[in-house]
Amino acid sequence: MHTYFSQDGKMTMEEACRKAISVGLQEIAFTDHMDIDWPDNKNAFQITDMDQYIRAIETIRTKYRGKLVVKTGIEMGLQDWTLETATSLVEKYPYDFVIASIHLVDGMDPYLSEYYKNRDKVQSYTDYYQTTYDLLRDYNDFCVLGHLDYLRRYIPYPYTPGDHKIGTEIIESILKLLIQKGKGLELNTAGYKHISKQPHPHPDILKRYRELGGEIVTIGSDAHSAPYVGYENRRALEWLKYAGFDYVTSFTEGKPNFVKIT
Question: What dihedral angle (degrees, nearest 10) is formed by the CA atoms of 252, 254, 260, 262?
C-alpha cells in the first residue's frame, strides 16, 4: 500500500488503517515507493526522508496495537546500477517486508507510450520479463517479486486471454530463480482493474510457480488510496487455493510466516 510518502499516494497511514479494519484485515504492510535514480527526476518516486517514514509507521503501529498488525515495508524499484544502494537501505533500516519491483526497461516506464514505439506486443512483454530476470539474478535483498506482469496494466495492444503465455520460457526462468533464492511472488489484486480482470500475475503463472516448488506468496492490493485497501482480497484467496496454496505468507523482519487459509 502507498501513502503520501509515495509521490502517487493519496492517503495517510491513519486512513489506510481505518479502512483496513473496516474491511476485516488483521495485518497490513506499508510499502511506499523507493525507485532510486528515476529518469528525468531522480527523486520522483523516492521516500525523501526514510527516518521520518520509519518513525511514522512505528507511531501508527503503536496506536493500532491490539486492533491491527502494522508491518514496515518498502517497494524497492530496481535498476542495474542501483542494486548496491538498494542493498544498503535494506541493511540500514528495519523493514519487515521488501517488495522487489521492476518499473523501468532501458530507462523507460511501460506506463508511457514511448516504451511501445518500437516494440510489438510480444517484444513488449519479453523485454520486460528479461529485464526482470536479469535484475533478480543479481539482487537478493527482497522478500517477494511485485506485480510480475506489471506492463499488462498499460500495454496499448488489445488484450487476449492467452497473453499470460507470452514469454513462457522467460517466466519459467524467473519462477525457478525465485525458488532457488528462497523468494516469493506477490499476488497483486490491482490487476483486477484491468480489462483482463486478472491479478498480477495471472493465476496460471501462480499455479506454475507452485508446481515448480514455490512456497511463498503474499497478497497486495497495491492501494494508493483508502477505497482500494483490501481490494479483491477474498477473490485473491480463492485464486491461491486454485493455484495449490493452503496458506498465505506474511513477513516479520524479513522472515516468512505461513498463515493457513480457512
Answer: 60
Residue 47, amino acid: I
For the chain, domains (ranges, CATH) are 13-260 (3.20.20.140)
Helix residue ranges per DSSP H, 104-200: 121-137, 168-181
C-alpha cell at 66: 491490539
> From CA 252, how far away is CA 72, in angstroms rounded?
9
CA distance linking residue 160 with residue 180, whole number of Å? 31
C-alpha span between 257 and 237 (Å, rounded) = 16
Phi/psi of residue 182, nearest 5 degrees: 75, 30
In whole angstroms, how far apart are CA 154 and each of 16, 125, 162, 195? 26, 11, 17, 11
Q: Is the pLDDT of residue 170 over 90?
A: yes
Give the three-class secondary structure for 58: helix
Cell 497478497 maps to which residue?
A: 219
Q: 3-class SS at 94?
A: coil
Over residues 22-76, the pLDDT tens digits come to: 999 999 999 999 999 999 888 889 999 999 999 999 999 999 999 999 999 999 9
Tell me the whole-structure pTM to 2 decimals. 0.97
Say if residues 145 and 100 touch (Cβ distance below 8 Å): yes
Beta bridge partners of 198: none
> Side-chain half-sphere of 35: how many Cα atoms within 13 Å?
20
The C-alpha cell that represents 59 in the structure block = 507511531
- For cell 491491527, the residue is 68
- How far is 181 from 114, CA to CA, in rounded Å? 33
pLDDT in tens, 239-255: 999 999 999 999 999 99
* Nearest CA-CA partner of 217 in 237, 191, 194: 237
Average pLDDT over residues 11-22: 98
